Amino acid sequence: MLIRPAVLEDAEVLSHLVHRVISYLTIHADGREAEPFFASITPAAMAERLQSSQFRYWLGIDDHQKIVGAIGIRDNAHLYHLFVDPQHHQQGYGTQLWQYVKTYALANGNPGIFTVNSSLFAEKMYRKFGFVPTAEKQEMHGLAFIPMTLKMAAE
């Protein structure tokens, strides 16, 4: 998989990708109560993040030049978004994106501490990455998530 930095022109693609995984994130299948989340994933909201110095995003592109996943990190420490197109789940794309961003963050000053608000669906994957829960399941804005942290051992 090719991983490249996302640019402003990718805002719409990022928004569409997140919309394809909505059912894995919302508490209610119909999305009720998740309006604040929906507002945060519009193309305009994604464009705002892509222009912010707080965020960095990358896209994962398969051998057929199709965008299969995306990852975003805030403040070089909080895994803000990690989404893989449902048709490409369980193929290692999420792991590849995470490994890439983890290496980037460490090379750019992260001391080995990462956080994420994991969806219930992704908890097992984040545990495989070494993240551990820091609190019980939370519910906010129509989403359910588990706050998690990864503290890497100092070498």
TrEMBL record:
Stretches that traverse the bilayer: none
Matching InterPro entries: Acyl_CoA_acyltransferase (IPR016181), GNAT_dom (IPR000182)
GO molecular function: acyltransferase activity, transferring groups other than amino-acyl groups
Top-level division of the source organism's lineage: Bacteria
Keywords: Acyltransferase, Transferase
Pfam families assigned: Acetyltransf_10
Chain ranges of the N-acetyltransferase domain: 1-153
PANTHER family listed in its UniProt record: PEPTIDYL-LYSINE N-ACETYLTRANSFERASE YJAB
Name under which the protein is recorded: GNAT family N-acetyltransferase
Source species of the chain: Undibacterium baiyunense
